[in-house]
Design goal:
This protein is mainly beta. The protein has a single domain, classed as Immunoglobulin-like, CATH 2.60.40. It contains two helices and 22 strands. The protein has helices at residues 5-29, 75-78; strands at 43-44, 51-59, 69-70, 85-86, 103-106, 111-112, 123-127, 130-132, 135-139, 143-148, 154-160, 164-168, 175-178, 183-189, 197-203, 208-210, 216-222, 225-233, 238-246, 251-258, 262-270, 275-282. The strands form seven sheets. Strands 9-15-14-11-12 form a five-stranded mixed beta sheet. The chain is globular and about 60 Å long.
């Protein structure tokens, strides 16, 4: 007895999903093909008696009201707790005023320790229609590892230092994405989950840290010297909206366009074996 229509349809469905996944792997592999990686102006040395820079990033002034977006698709997956709206995670301020997800880094450093960026910041999961973590750090020339825990289609749209659209038709399968150019990569979902957003910083040296929920950061094994230290925030305002195609439903949807990143800079002196304290106060003004 031959296969029935349902079995044939299911076979075609699985075949199509496998074809999409194979295409995703190919796109990730060639995402920057033909685009030469920039020469790094950073040299790795053995740091003897390095110093530490630590501090906090705190919010000053009134806290702006950031709109939440309605969960308009796949609510059973995107909102298992039944919430109707989603926080955009663009400005996370703790009860103590600490600002999470701020990137603090040294600007004018040309030599120091080997790359030791946090492993967790180099892997991203798409879970309950969120990008986790929200801020990622990847060394120039390394791979960003991306997977989806969700049983629905996500398509990662990348713009900035990397440009791509990578579909994730299967759960829990990592796709490595080469990050060949330094800079900021903006991530959004092209499958209709318009609230999903994250930022990847592709960096040339290891002296980067992302603040925790209390706004705390720490940079270790810094060669003694004077540096410019900068706090970078992705921006929290919705500047406008853009019309994009939901590749899953083939329906046009509106997606937020966010305000530009903001930076704050200070000078810091690092001494052998000592800790230098740096405090940032950030606000809308």
């Amino acid at each position: 007895m031959g296969p029935n229509r349902r079995e044939i349809a299911m076979g075609k469905f699985i075949k199509n999903r496998r074809a999409i996944f194979g295409l995703a792997l190919w796109l990730a592999a060639v995402s920057c093909a033909g685009r030469a990686a920039g020469q790094s102006d950073y040299t790795t040395i053995e740091v003897g008696e390095g110093g530490t820079i630590s501090g906090t990033v705190r919010w000053a002034g009134p806290i702006p009201k950031i709109p939440r977006l309605p969960i308009t698709k796949n609510a059973e997956v995107c909102s298992p707790d039944g919430e109707k709206t989603r926080d955009l995670e663009r400005l996370v301020i703790g009860a103590d005023g600490g600002v999470a997800n701020t990137v603090v880094y040294l600007k004018n450093i040309s030599q120091g320790k080997a790359m030791d960026l946090p492993e967790a910041r180099q892997h991203m999961d798409q879970k309950t229609c969120r990008y986790i973590p929200h801020i990622l750090l990847v060394a120039q020339g390394a791979n960003l590892q991306v997977k989806s825990s969700d049983p629905v289609l996500h398509t990662v749209h990348m713009a900035g230092a990397a440009s791509n659209n990578i579909p994730f038709p299967f759960q829990n399968q990592y796709i490595p994405i080469a990050m060949r150019r330094s800079g900021v990569v903006d991530l959004k979902c092209n499958a209709g989950h318009v609230w999903m957003n994250a930022e990847v910083l592709v960096v040339k040296h290891p002296y980067y840290a992302v603040t925790d929920n209390h706004g705390f950061f720490k940079l270790t094994d810094v060669p003694p010297g004077e540096y410019e230290i900068e706090a970078w925030h992705e921006g929290w305002r919705i500047a406008s909206e853009q019309k994009v195609l939901d590749v899953g439903s083939q329906v046009e949807v509106s997606r937020p366009v966010y305000s530009e990143p903001t930076t704050w800079a200070k000078k810091v002196v690092v001494r052998k074996g000592q800790t230098s304290d740096v405090q940032f106060s950030i606000s809308e003004n």
